[in-house]
Amino acid sequence: MHDNRFAVVAKAGDRIADLSTPRPIIDEDRLAANISRVQSYMDEHGLNFRPHIKTHKIPALATAQVAAGAKGINCQKVTEAEVFANAGFEDILITFNIIGVPKLERLAALNDRISGLKVVADSQVTVDGLSAHFSGRKPLTVLVECDTGGARCGVQTPEQAASLAKYIAAADGLAFGGILTYPKPQSADAVEAFIQSTLKQLAAEGIACPIVSNGGTPSLFQAHLVKSATEHRAGTYIYNDRQMIRMGHCAQDDCAMHVLATVVSRPNADRAVIDAGSKALTSDLQGFTDFGLVVGYPEARITSLSEEHGVIDLSACTGQLPQIGEKLFIIPNHTCVVSNLFDTMVFHRSGIVTRVEDVAARGLVW
Amino acid sequence: MHDNRFAVVAKAGDRIADLSTPRPIIDEDRLAANISRVQSYMDEHGLNFRPHIKTHKIPALATAQVAAGAKGINCQKVTEAEVFANAGFEDILITFNIIGVPKLERLAALNDRISGLKVVADSQVTVDGLSAHFSGRKPLTVLVECDTGGARCGVQTPEQAASLAKYIAAADGLAFGGILTYPKPQSADAVEAFIQSTLKQLAAEGIACPIVSNGGTPSLFQAHLVKSATEHRAGTYIYNDRQMIRMGHCAQDDCAMHVLATVVSRPNADRAVIDAGSKALTSDLQGFTDFGLVVGYPEARITSLSEEHGVIDLSACTGQLPQIGEKLFIIPNHTCVVSNLFDTMVFHRSGIVTRVEDVAARGLVW
User: Which domain of life does the protein's organism represent (chains A, B) (predicted)?
Assistant: First the structure.
């Protein structure tokens, strides 16, 4: 039934130029340099590093991250963590409020078979659900998620953080593991102030806080400014993308992922259409008004996507224009969501395929 | 390796309320009514109907569409067409310029085994590639794609359409099959004028035009106004979505797909966070400024998505607000792209699971 889906798309030694498109490809040298550059920074500042696997979803890449010095990994759902546990990982942090019987049952089974599973919570409702499920079993480690400007999940104040930590510490079946921030980029001072206030209150209550986990790729090279953090989490840095260029984290030549596409139509002088649409590039804008950076054609704008078509406005381009049949290399706005669309990922060095990896944690149920 | 990915997510008789989230679900009664309503309209107006399978990607649903009276199906890529050929479909139109050796080879193999394969072309480059590959083989039927306002692919004028038709008719290995439009919604007069002008020029050249294929769900119930069309193509109508409501094609109660999500956090009075992010709802805006319609909470706005989180602004809501653990039914902006994210689709009637179908043509390579 899934013959097509898992068809061999390439093998080592093939030429990237001969691949069918659209297809994301990963430059091995840039990948290795990205892993090394960030790990070196963490080592220099004595910070534990916990890569988020959401960007690649491939156990072999997490293995490379740990081999470089990472202390554990970060997953976003239980089923992702299962894939990495199957591959031998023990220190896994799931940064999500786990709610509902199906997820709690899988979580408990996972906790029974690895040594370092940790989750987060930001409410008593979440903690009550975890406690009811883990009471009488091997205890689960729970960190308090704090909203330090990210405006997503998280307790809103240090007082709430300390209060929930105390609640976790007292709950059956749970162990308080520390605090975690989801910060707004470039807000090291605000993050540090939130953490220090929380730690002070925890100390007053006599509650130890083993982990202070900070996160994000855009602000990664400011991680050392959050002095109370014991570890940093980041995912996108391993591939990098157009948003990371804009945010100053990397240069265009640090982007390891390109979406390879073919020009399939040139309906008029100003328009090219490629075979990469929202099912290859995704519709993530990330603050841009177009859908990716076309390497070699900096004035080209991918103005609209349908599922299998990308429409490129060439009206601002000077010089030679892309022709029908030409292959384009596109740096996507957001690399993590592209990984989620493809069952396999092709790696290459200087245009020759080195390996093809199964994107094992793609599209999992929860 | 793929145990998780193809895990049993539900079985007939399960309660939708017990499913793990996020998860798209399809209402069987609405699905059947959507198929019936559109086919009845086509029958009433004597139009052949060719459903686009991109919306569901499930052979069993295409079988239901054909059982209701559809004359064939529409796919967007060769590998999708292979899945439906495997399921017994013979009349398949692929509405794409097929370029490049890997795609052409698969296309030729497919043409050898089904009777009614057809593709489109909008340039001599595409036609030359097809002709070189099909010369000396079973001929391939090729339609000319026309841009009648859709601003994607397609020849720009009736003169170009007639000229390319003549070029196809004269090409080795190819048969001219007709013309195809990708119209802007609500532009029946412009589409009809383009077609009539093309047909007149073809007649003057003595070239028969067996098929005139028009398309689109938003303008579907104006399809009879394009009097020269012999068939209409549409995909989204089978599930419907928020965009189709806005465009006047359907009402909220005609939307067969909901994304089921759980509230996992209520960080403050105005904010809820759900476990459906861009990996469930997709980032397709389709002209909206938020990411879906929350049934029962019409003032709630899904203002931002990360991969596994959706942030809902509740500030405009009156009355009771969603609580942590509550399950929400969300009508996505664009249903076709949601189908592409899940390996299986759950169907239900009045909240009880009726069947689970493999989304067999999801995420295929090209």
Answer: Bacteria
